[in-house]
Amino acid sequence: MAVVVRIPTPLRKLTGNQNEVREEGGTIREILKNLESHYPGIGERLADESGELRRFINIYVNEEDIRFRDGLDTAIKPGDEVSIIPAIAGGAK
Amino acid sequence: MVFREDQISRYSRHIILREVGGRGQERLLSSRVLVIGAGGLGSPVAMYLAAAGVGTIGLVDMDVVDVSNLQRQIMHSQKTVGIPKVLSGARTLERMNPDVKVIPIQERLTAENAMDLFSGYDVIVDGSDNFGTRYIVNDAAFFLRKTLVSGSILRFEGQVTVLEGHTDAPCYRCLYPEAPPPGLVPSCSEAGVLGVLAGTIGTLQAAEVVKKILGIGELLKGQLLLYDALSMTFRKLRVPKDPKCPLCGPHPTITTVSGSSEWVCQVPAT
Known about the structure:
The complex is a heterodimer. By secondary structure, chain A is α+β, with helices and mostly antiparallel strands. Chain A has helices at residues 28-38, 42-46; strands at residues 2-6, 20-24, 57-61, 64-65, 81-86. The longest helix of chain A is centred in the middle third of the chain and has 11 residues, at 28-38. The mean pLDDT of chain A is 93. Chain B has one domain (18-238): Rossmann fold, CATH 3.40.50. Chain B contains ten helices and eight strands. Chain B has an eight-stranded mixed beta sheet with strand order 3-2-1-4-5-6-7-8, sandwiched between helices. Chain B is globular and about 55 Å long. Chain B starts with a helix and ends in a 32-residue tail after the last strand. Mean pLDDT of chain B is 94; it is low at 265-270. At the A-B interface, strand 3, strand 4 and strand 5 of A face helix 7, strand 5, strand 6, helix 9 and strand 7 of B.
């Protein structure tokens, strides 16, 4: 089952400028794996060498941060929307 | 306080709002707001707060105005290129509204000076340009129990949230536990930013500050507002307080303000 994954601007170069893509997977972990296979290089932006999500990137399923659900094992249902939200710091310069 | 005739005229559109009234306008005039960063976000924040009659506005920024700032930093102008941003900003704000006292602070915000700088203010606004400063601002605001209105922009997207880690609401560390490591990321000048985005996000921050001072409406506490200028969409996501937060959680490991603001402007790499 494919769900919509929203891609933030800093990562859109890796998705051919698409702001959302569709990926298959029953959990966030599966979705990230499929995302990397379609858009090589995106995986290392999201997770570190041990496979843990980087601590300045949040992944939301609908309006909920997966850190407060089951992390990468958070289950995905049809119709869910996955959003990748990185910390950004611009403002003054 | 008793309003002067000119103040009754100046603030009449506020005073006739039942939610503001004379009492709310008095509150604005006696309030003190500190704006970190007198740039893209700080400009619209400070200008709307000055227009609203916020009585004291502190501006913290160590830089001077550069011509490349003028595409979005509307508090500055061609005439103030080369002048410290906090002085250029003070000049603009004082011209807008003589009721406002502007305190220009031409310093780098550091772990050492943050607590002193923040202590005299009611609300802190983060419009800084680097992660190091954002964690210092967050931690100092938390220890002093101040409301922090945080905004950030990059390219075509912006984020706004209101942080009150000293209450049951989250702090910045609950939202983003760690900053991206230096080196992983290009600078903002390389990444670029749509100028008007600074106005959109800064104006939203100003609205939250005014609401906080007036005690009206619902603040973006425990929520992250995302704005995408290209798709013209706003979304709100929930941000819970992190029970493992090293600052505002039940078992804190951070007990003083520390860290460096000597980071270059950073974004996750593209």
